[in-house]
Amino acid sequence: MWPLPPAPRPRWLVLLASAAVLTALPAMAHAAPSLDQAPDPTQAAAGIVEATNAFRQQQDREPLQVDPRLAKAAADFARFMARTGRFGHRAGGSTPAERVRAAGYDFCAIAENIAFQFSSAGFTTEGLSEAFTQGWKTSAEHRRNMLLASLTETGVGVAQGTDSGRWYAVQIFGRPESLRRSFSIRNAADVPITYRVGEDRYRLPPRYTRTHYTCEPAELRVQWPHEQGGERLTPDDGAALRIERGGGGELRLRGR
After folding, report:
1. What are the CB-based long-range contacts (under 8 Å, 24+) for 21-24?
2. What is the tens place of the pLDDT at every residue in 53-92?
């Protein structure tokens, strides 16, 4: 019996979050930094990466590696928003997924945080990095993106608008296509089996095999027929699961 075609592969998982902070301070109370104190965009971006990894370490997450393609996509979009004053994940008419792919990054999952900051007192490089990072850490959606364990790489861009004086930051998180997970499930029993992977429901006829692809660990829930109950587990990457009958005629799941 031929195996079933693989379960549909999700093209991508995209998580988005945006924020803005404007701080207008009395000009005489806070002097603007001199030119040699003005933030360096490259160093500010590096500071955001460093602070993000420190935050992940505090929350028992693995550090993110900087990918130059993600960094380019982030920097290009930050400069676009700074130049035009347009703010939003689709401000330039393209999606984060399109921008990342245009930079040559083939991904299984991505997330994007964007924000802008303004203060009439100005920023130092360290202060600007901290302002963006702290703002994202205190927002539920941004925090989620910063701490997703399945995301392994990042790229950050920072740019200032010439006319507005606003600072824009873009942080992209990615999991490359090469790290896509998979597992297979074969029905060696004599009855069709119904099961779910995440929120998707499937039916597997007898003597068929189906392969599933996921960007992150997903729960498998098997429902046995005839009131036998069911089983739940999170398959390991590359697992080859098998449904069969035991000596007493009960159905069971092997290969976990």
Report:
1. 21/115, 21/116, 21/117, 21/118, 21/131, 21/135, 22/117, 22/118, 23/117, 23/118, 23/119, 23/120, 23/121, 24/118, 24/119, 24/120
2. 999 999 999 999 999 999 999 999 999 999 999 999 999 8
**Strand pairing of 240-245 and 181-187?**
parallel
Q: State pLDDT tens for residues 159-198.
A: 999 888 999 999 999 999 999 999 999 999 999 999 999 8
Q: Where are the alpha helices (DSSP H) in the chain?
A: 41-58, 68-84, 96-102, 125-137, 140-147
Partners of 229 in beta bridges: 224
Residues with Cβ within 8 Å of residue 152, at least 6 apart in sequence = 62, 64, 65, 174, 175, 176, 179
d(CA 85, CA 123): 19
- Cα gap 197→181, rounded to integer Å: 13
Single pTM value for the model = 0.78
Strands of the chain, DSSP E: 13-23, 65-66, 107-119, 153-160, 167-176, 181-187, 193-197, 200-204, 209-214, 220-224, 229-233, 240-245, 251-254
Distance, in Å, from the CA atom of 42 to the CA atom of 46, rounded to the nearest integer, reads: 6
Q: What is the pLDDT of residue 120?
A: 77
